[in-house]
Design a protein that fits this description.
With about 475 residues, the chain is α+β, with helices and mostly antiparallel strands. It is built from 17 helices and 21 strands. The longest helix is centred in the last third of the chain and has 23 residues, at about 370-395.
Length: about 475
């Protein structure tokens, strides 16, 4: 068994640490935020995770997250339920006229979701009680500890044997797992060792988020009159049920859309949401914040540590958002990160870390197989959606020279017309199957293109662009 250091103490870091400890590895988690973990019931009011800029912003935990935890960490599922996490199945909530009635395998679509502080507090409590996991809060990494390499992999790359904290302590390990998120400093640490830097793709995602959380006096979640993510011309909305009778509403806009920047104002934000007939009732509860929470300057980033047929460094791997991250409007981040954690566990089972170069190659291959397709599909959707928004702002139709976008739009529309298309759509939304996997089902693509052929004629339910600008700016 190996000694492993995980840098970062977020949800994916903690679930991965538990998976590895359950396999007999000795895992130390280094989390720079010093605040102790509160009880889940107190987390929303008291816990500040200053190292996580989206900590108090709306989150959604999709069906794939639940399925993977039930498979590998059922005790975490129990803790989340005890904390008040919500179980919700979109197929059960959708009228039978659209679903064709309940089917035995529709249970796979069930979410287990909640507000980020509540979910993380529950998960952190389980991690802290897991044999083999040591969580050190208030300890930040400051660099990597390198070692001279001998043997078959000596000529290729530097090898990492631990993390040097900002206080100068060396925490040695057989493997370092970077789970510090989208702005990880580990690539700079790798360059400081004299290694070739990871291959990186980076661009601004182009979106800005304006959100608020709510609670109803009777604890009831508002009914959904459409999917959680709905497009309304130049904006989108997210309506996200959460734990203990709470939920959130988010307006997503282009970061370049100066006409909508007054959405930071509660009155303007509320007026815009009230103008959307399928969403307006979601803000009738008690707000849990005084203002509108915003998030911008979100980067689409992808780092690959295996370049030109060899690793840039051995002994360290990037996990979840430290590996790749995108605009979070599709809510896939935690589910993709959880899949990545399971992939790491499985590679360690199969390969071990005895040959660092072979392990690096195996983990890169597992990453490309298990999670790379999700990153690419999400990035493609984001780029088309942003271009569609910018065309709406200019007052022109968006015509993409990409048949995949036509299929995507057809599927979105067909989901309201045909039960098979609905289940295909929800499968992709829930991270149960990539678009390519789902659309490869016999006969489905033809059905999607037929049932979704009129997507351009779909009725706009909400204000026109000029009306929207007037509402947001008046």
């Amino acid at each position: 068994m190996a000694s492993i250091v995980v840098t970062g103490g977020g949800i994916v870091a903690l679930t991965t640490a538990m998976l590895l400890a359950d396999d007999g590895h000795d895992v130390t988690v280094l989390e720079r935020d010093p605040a102790p973990v509160p009880e889940p019931s107190e987390a929303w009011e008291t816990w500040e995770r200053r190292g996580v800029n989206q900590f108090r912003l709306p989150h959604l935990f999709l069906a794939r997250f639940r399925i993977e935890l039930e498979r590998g960490l059922p005790r975490v599922i129990k803790a989340l339920e005890q904390a008040g996490a919500l179980r919700l199945n979109p197929m059960a909530e959708t009228p039978a006229e659209f679903t064709g009635g309940w089917r035995e395998d529709d249970g796979a679509f069930e979410f287990l979701t909640g507000r980020r502080p509540v979910m993380e507090a529950a998960i952190a409590a389980v991690a802290q009680s897991t044999p083999g996991v040591t969580v050190r809060r208030g300890v930040a990494g400051g660099g990597l500890v390198g070692a001279s390499v001998t043997g078959s992999h000596a000529a290729a790359v530097p090898h990492v044997v631990g993390v040097r904290t900002t206080s100068g302590e060396e925490v040695l390990a057989d493997l370092v797992v970077d789970a510090t998120g989208r702005r990880s400093a580990v690539p700079d640490w790798i360059k400081a060792l004299g290694a070739q830097p990871p291959e990186e793709e980076l661009e601004d995602s182009g979106f800005v988020y304006y959100g608020r959380h709510f609670r109803a006096p009777d604890g009831a979640i508002p009914p959904a009159f459409g999917p959680g993510l709905m497009d309304h011309g130049s904006i989108s909305t997210l309506t996200l049920p959460a734990d203990n009778g709470t939920w959130s509403v988010v307006v997503v806009a282009s970061a370049k859309d100066s006409a909508l920047r007054r959405l930071r104002d509660v009155e303007k934000w509320s007026a815009v949401v009230k103008s959307l007939p399928l969403v307006a009732h979601w803000i009738e509860g008690e707000p849990l914040e005084d203002g509108v929470m915003t998030m911008s300057k979100i980067e689409d980033r992808h780092r690959r540590y295996f370049v030109d047929g060899r690793p840039v460094v051995t002994g360290v791997v990037a996990l979840a958002d430290a590996w790749a991250c995108t605009n979070p409007s599709l809510g896939r981040g935690v589910s993709i990160g959880t899949l990545h954690g399971f992939a790491l566990r499985d590679v360690l089972r199969e390969s071990g870390v005895g040959d660092p170069t072979a392990f690096a190659a195996a983990f890169d291959e597992a990453t490309m197989r298990a999670v790379e397709p999700w990153y690419r599909a999400t990035l493609s959707y984001d780029r088309h959606r942003l271009a569609e928004v910018e065309a709406e702002i200019r007052g022109v139709p968006y015509e993409a020279d990409d048949p995949q976008w036509e299929i995507t739009k057809s599927l979105q529309y067909a989901a309201g017309q045909d039960p098979e298309c609905l289940r295909a759509f929800v499968s992709i939304v829930s991270v149960l199957g990539t678009p390519d996997e789902v659309l490869a089902r016999p006969g489905l693509l033809d059905k999607v293109l037929s049932a979704g052929a009129d997507w351009r004629e779909a009725e706009r339910l909400g204000p026109s662009r000029s009306e929207l600008v007037s509402i947001a700016g008046s």
